[in-house]
Write a structure and sequence with these properties.
Elements: E1 5-12, H1 15-27, E2 34-39, H2 45-55, E3 70-74, E4 79-84, H3 90-95, H4 99-102, E5 107-111, E6 124-133, E7 136-144, H5 146-157, E8 163-164
Parallel strand pairs: 2-5, 2-6, 4-5
Antiparallel strand pairs: 1-7, 1-8, 3-4, 6-7
Helix pairs in contact: 1-2
Length: 166
């Protein structure tokens, strides 16, 4: 029997709509959560990550860990492990011992996650951010596992969001 899977689409007409989605997801955060982010260059992965970090109570500026690969932040709610694996090979990523982060005390966000998909936890929330022009974005979410599937269901039925169920 396969894992429960849920899907949702969040239409963000402005940067603030993207921030609202990040805040919603951060409100549900628990230790061991995994958010796998993908999207074209400039689509807004780091902006989403920054808003998510702020909602977790991480002080200061959160920027892309492109050259450091992993940045650890202490939030008032939970630690955040922010990764950018764009410049890593699968073998290099495997040697980093990422499981310690994935199954640790905090929440992990991996930018360019599809590049190391086979190393990621089976259960996760996958987000693909698509640039629609200007400040508009379409964020497609796939929740793998009951917890993440429920998040997608909640976002799809929330009339207060711009979430849609395509």
């Amino acid at each position: 029997m396969g894992k429960e899977i849920g899907q949702a689409v969040w239409l963000a007409e402005s940067e603030q709509d993207t921030v609202r989605l990040a805040e919603r997801l951060a409100a549900w955060a628990q230790a061991g959560d995994m958010l796998a982010l993908d999207g074209d260059l400039g689509a807004g992965k780091t902006r989403f990550s920054s808003a998510y970090a702020k909602a977790l109570g991480v002080p200061g500026v959160v920027n892309s860990p492109t050259f450091t690969i992993i940045k650890e932040y202490t939030g008032s709610k939970l630690p955040l492990y922010h990764m950018d694996v764009y410049r890593l090979s699968l073998d290099e990523a495997d040697e980093l011992g990422l499981d310690e982060y994935f199954y640790g005390e905090g929440v992990t966000i991996v930018e360019w996650a599809s590049l190391i998909e086979e190393l990621l936890p089976e259960e996760r929330l996958q987000l693909f951010i698509e640039h629609l022009g200007g400040d508009s974005r379409r964020i497609r979410m796939t929740g793998i596992g009951q917890r993440y599937a429920q998040w997608c269901q909640a976002l799809s039925r929330d009339d207060g969001s711009r979430g849609t169920n395509e």
